[in-house]
Predict the structure of Glycosyltransferase.
Amino acid sequence: MTDRPAGRTGHASVPGAGTTERESRVSVAMITRGRPQGALRALDRLAALPERPAVIVVDNGTDPAVTAALRAHPVGATVLAPGRNTGALGRNLAVRHATTPYVAFSDDDSWWAPGALRRAADLLDAHPRLGLLAARSLVGAEEREDPLNARLAHSPLPRDPDLPGRPVLGFLGCAAVVRRTAHLDVGGYHPVLFFGAEETLLAYDLAAAGWGVSYVDSVVAHHHPDEGARPGPTTLVTRNALLTCWLRRPAAVALRRTVALAAAPARGDRTAGRALRGALLRLPAALRHRRPLPPTIERAVRLLEATAAREQRAAQAPGRAPS
């Protein structure tokens, strides 16, 4: 059932609001669609941050009452209502409207830890080549580590002396802070993907343009997804992983991935068939925008893939105790 703003009698208190100077270097960009109560709760959390960041909300829904409720929230967010679902491209819209040098991404089920935005801004100030900072994501009230944290923290990519943390080529969409000029430089999230696993392509494009992408575990975001959210890869994630190959990877790699995905339904993977059909519909657009990665970045991608494959084989080895 879609939650509604009706019946909400008030907003969470904002302890300390107005007692600290606003952090003027970073704003928060949130995208939301059809989850007003979740979005309002996230705004409550953002309003309570000591940094008091400016907030830009892109309402991907079409209900004027929801847009009005978002605009009425005491955080004073700038609410953009494109009148249609813009998917992840809503983040591009928010970045274009931002007036701060850095923009932190949130969804309507996530927010930033107190002090995280100031820490991120300090790191971006100190490292001018850093285009995107991937943060540590804690899930739910129990603050469980998102599985992606460990993969990013143990990235095999060599450390770069002019970047903080670990060099990576991926991040969680609701736990990242981007340098606005870097985001605009590469065009932001790609329209061919629209939504689902869109982060990898942005990381590729930033790295290809010479920007650094780093994981820093001292910058923390909170993520409270719906308990009923479906785990595991979705059709959109699988579709977009293939499209990312056609957009940026060597043709031989993209062709192998396409053949493998086409064979998956015979093994009972119905999601693969839907993903392949969706990818084929968008393939002409992907080919028009095809721009293979520079050799150095392609080698980095292959190193990450080889490391992930070794870890998967080790995890599946007979006699290995479950972690």
In short: The chain has a mean pLDDT of 92. Residues 235-307 form one domain.
